[in-house]
Amino acid sequence: MVSEIELRDIHPKGNINVPSSLHVQTGLSIPKTVRVKSFSPDEWEEFTEEWASHLKNKYVTVRRFSGSGDLGIDIAGFCSDKGFEAVWDNYQCKRYGHPLRPSDIWGEIGKIIYYSHLGKYLPPRKHYFVCSQGIGTSLEQLLNKPSELKEKSIENWDNYCLNSITSTAETPLIGTLRAYLDAFDFTIFSSKSIVELIEIHAETGFHSVRFGGGLPYRPNPSSPPTIPTANESRYIRQLLDAYGDHLGSNLPDADSLASHNLYRGDYLRQRERFYHAESLKNFARDTVPSGTFDDLQNEIYHGVIDVCEDYHLNGLARMKETMKHATTIAATSNPLVTSIKTQDRQGICHQLANDDRLFWVPDNES
Fold it and tell me: Does the model's pTM come out above 0.70?
């Protein structure tokens, strides 16, 4: 007898939220964890290098080891200039088609035991296992039971370590090596989840390019200090020369503007614009790949240089026309475009003047 079949209308749920125009153009976004799991070998290597670059903020030195003679080390973070002779951490990164299993790590643990026993390096303070598919439940549970992890390492030594740690000789777990393993601190072994890797990666300048989603919120720029810093000396000198060229007098310093209220106000605005551009430069350093801000500066430069080199009545007119034109440059190809303000474009002109790439009074030799 055929069982009863329930027939119902088709009602796709779709997206829970109201879709935006971006969803219509590109479809629903793929979760970052899913994207990491689908990385090709080359993409995984690039991603690993990218998040590992942030470790430089945590360690004195970070090095990547590769090849058959890596001694069980992948990414080493050194806490001092003594390298392997002092405190260091190891990040062992794997790309498999499955979440990391206990059978995937016995050989790696064996290498750490063997080579630290030989004195090739001090045991790492922490040894993190990292995998493109994440850490399997059974391994995660085992890593949280150091005594059991030690027992299992001993049980699996012959199958995974005896003939694989070196290609020239067997490494039986006997004598001083066995005694060394028995005394070894297995609490050093732990893991980093894909979510943790993404969180680390989010602190680098590669994140927005790798995963999209736009740039983070840009903080407001700091106000210029009352006394200019040494970093401002060149563009301020050019600025004062531009005022002096217009007034027909020499202005040795900013105090000379005290009797010129109109230019005193302009001077303060120009410094604010410079600090806007400096804040964008710092923002770019933390959110986009190296060189992105330099590319923006070059685009502004090529957009204004012809205007700057045209005939102008005086240096102040040249500066004003150049900066006015800078505000019209779209820079839509630059990843920073969504974070750029008018003051940034103007401030970049002062950065270029600071580097002697733009001159308001070309014949001035001061």
Answer: no
